Amino acid sequence: MKHLAEYKEEIHSCSKCGLCQSVCPVYKITGNDCTVSRGMFIMLKGLIRGDLKMTRKLNRYLDLCLKCGACSKFCPSDIDVVDIIASAKAEYFKQSFFEKLLSFIQKNFVFGMGINFLKLFSHNIKSKKFEKKVIYFGGCSGGIKGNRAVVKLLNSCNIEVITPNFKCCGISFYVRGDMDNFSQYKDSYLQIMKKYGIKDVVTVCASCEKTIKGFSDEINVKNIFEYIRENNLKLKLKKNKKVTFHKPCNIDNYEDIKWILDNTENLEYIEMQDYDKCCGLNGISKLNEYKIMSKVFRDKYNNIINSGTKTLLTSCLGCEAALKFYSLGKYRVDDFTEFLVKNI
Ligand code: SF4
Ligand code: SF4
Asked: Is the CB of 21 under 6 A from ligand 1?
């Protein structure tokens, strides 16, 4: 985990071309350069030089960033914006009692007691035995939903699934700049992996996948869609279903998901406009920024409604929660793997 000052070179490599402005969902609404990577980097340069101080106002701009990474994908200088914003958030976290309180509540009540309670109702099944074995990193999603969908799909690919009792991947602590708690989740993951001695990990959640990929170069993390496609597993739904799909920002291999959407019998896939635009998850908790965030949500909502389908699929627990939050009962949101297993 690098400190903000260690990103000095990367921040300096910003050519101020402004391409990030054309893709940033927040900049599109605010038109304010302080709310997109180019403008934030100018402020962060000042912070590193000591010309600026970390204030609530500067933190407000960091908080408005959805951490979607859309700007990084277009950035000609190949700057990893989300990592830099997280390291700047870490500077604010150190001095903010409120941020620490939020982390305490989140760790102990949401990811602690909350998930432990929901685990009582999760659907876990025993995997069949095969020569090929993978570890399932369920994170919070696995805690709430159990391993049933993953085991059924991977057993159909002749893969055995081992389900240890992992904690959260810690991504929400990372984006808030709570690096101590984030490191604890990382250590817990690495300890469990060491105990099992298996190097292949499967996830169903895009955010978990991206986060745990950064924990170790020696562990091979893939999402379940890669396994399904690699094994040419063709599925057939019991009844005709029409669906659309929201691509989480954190997923890289949408082509595997598209392959499944296109090759599943009785499944009609309608690609909605801007299917790959951020759902606005990181804006949900920003009640003080409701005017800006509601516009991010409204664009997504309208695209879902205009797709003409009533079922929206996705593959990230955070996106699922955000999309349900503003669905207003007009469409149903389902995790893609859960949907497949329920309908085949
Ligand atoms: S796209 Fe990259 S290089 Fe261009 S202004 Fe934005 S952050 Fe800087
Ligand atoms: S990560 Fe997303 S919200 Fe943040 S500056 Fe980049 S495009 Fe904008």
From this structure: no
Give yes or no for residue 281 having a pLDDT over 90.
Answer: no
Counted domains in the chain: 3
What are 27-36's contacts with CB under 8 Å, separation 24+?
29/292, 29/295, 29/296, 30/64, 30/292, 34/61, 35/61, 35/64, 35/65, 36/71
Q: Whole-prediction pTM value?
A: 0.90
Tens digits of per-residue pLDDT, 81-124?
Answer: 999 999 999 999 999 999 999 999 988 888 778 777 877 778 88
By most ligand atoms within 8 Å of CB, the mutation choice from 17, 21, 26, 295 for ligand 2 is 26
Nearest CA to ligand 2 atom 4: 65
Q: Specify whether the CB–CB gap between 92 and 52 falls below 8 A.
A: no
CATH number at residue 137: 3.40.50.1860
Picking from 228, 245, 266, the residue at the C-terminal end of a domain is 228
Which of 212, 228, 244 marks a domain boundary? 228
Q: Measured in angstroms, how far is the CA atom of residue 76 from the centroid of ligand 2?
A: 15
Taking CB atoms and a 6 Å cutoff, what residues make up the pocket around ligand 2? 23-26, 36-37, 65-71, 81-82
Q: Domain span at residue 140?
A: 132-228
